Amino acid sequence: SVLSVSDHICGMPSNQPRFIFSRIIGGEEAVPYSWPWQVSVQISDEHICGGAVLAKEWVVTAAHSLSLDGVDHAGLVFCIRHPHPYKSDLSLCLSVKQYIIHPSFNKTTMDSDIALLQLAEPLEFNPYVGPVCLPAKEEAVQPSRVCVITGWGAHEADREKGRKLHQLEVPILVLDTCQSYYINLPSKVTQRMICAGFPLEEGKDSCTGDSGGPLVCPSEDNSGFYTLHGITSWGLGCGEKSYPGVYTNVGVFVDWIKHSVNSSGMYEKNN
Ligand code: ARG
User: Fold this and answer.
1) How far does residue 211's CA lie from ligand 1's centre (Å)?
2) What total of structural domains would you count in the chain?
3) Per the database record, which ranges form the Peptidase S1 domain (predicted)?
């Protein structure tokens, strides 16, 4: 059973993704339109973060993307662009009516790094723009499952953000193991986070600009649906050995997401 916030079919790429190197940084360019929920969250025409479409009026992103210091949000317009953030002919830029930062979000620890954007007008779903599926409540993704991260973030640790959407397959890591990697750092990995990546290797990870973007896992029965299990959140550097990428654990927040979306009166839940 696939869970969607709206009654639209979710998690289905219209172009089947293809993995050539099977292996953001260390990733590869995505086939156009293979990730129809991926959006770019922008402020004044500048890409700041990724995001994922949940329903016609709702996009999920990282809370830290929206809590920028010294920015007066009252005067801001957030734009959602898809699929190419820097080519206006292929983008649609919609303003955001409201955003909801998770009440437990902690800027210092990055705990509960999740926020919802409500668009001022609904997106039109088509083969290129569509929602991702949500996990079941409290559903945890199993370690060693191979999932996918996508984003327009930097391709090398110190480089500028990428122009083309990149993808990378990443295995989910055991939380305990991940916590031990970060044990000596002030930033702690909590139960509301999941880790994914290649801690024994260098150079394959999400990076600056990928934050807020989706970590999706293919359905286990190979039916071709993708479920949003993570939101790119943080990590020490990018692609450094022993410091895998850390993602918001979406399963923990499914109730909050549904409650926030439904209490806005826009959508009925449907299974
Ligand atoms: N926090 C960064 C951003 O705002 C990137 C997070 C991913 N980092 C990592 N090493 N996986 O875009």
Assistant:
1) 5
2) 1
3) 24-262
